[in-house]
Amino acid sequence: MKTISASAVNDRLTAGETLNIIDVREVAEVRSGRIPTSIHLPLGLIEFRMNELDKKKEYIVVCQSGGRSSQAVKFLDYHGFNVTNMNGGMLSWKGKVD
Fold first, then answer.
1. Residues marked as catalytic
2. pLDDT by position in tens, the chain (length 98)
């Protein structure tokens, strides 16, 4: 499984790079703040909404601490998506939040 640190994601965003970030946390967790431009797709809905994702794009998956996002990455990778897990999740995030 490919992984990336929260600081590397923040560095890429700060440099102006456009990233496709999927936040798999629950609605109540996302209310506390999420990475700008991330899309909210709760883990429990991944199977039903993965048709909304593009297999030609690279996605970075984030949750609160990294556990649920690693489950999502394994599932999406199995289905042919280019996905990377953000280590440490939002607990490691030091960048801006919406």
1. 63
2. 999 999 999 999 999 999 999 999 999 999 999 999 999 999 999 999 999 999 999 999 999 999 999 999 999 999 999 999 999 999 999 999 99
- How far is it, in rounded angstroms, from Cα 36 to Cα 96? 7
What kind of fold does domain 3-92 have according to CATH?
Oxidized Rhodanese; domain 1 (3.40.250)
- Judge contact between 96 and 14, C-beta under 8 A: no
Half-sphere exposure of 6 (CA within 13 A, CB side): 20
Which residues partner with 62 through β-bridges?
Answer: 23
CA atoms of 47 and 8, how far apart (whole Å): 28
Alpha helices in the chain (DSSP H): 6-14, 27-30, 46-49, 67-78
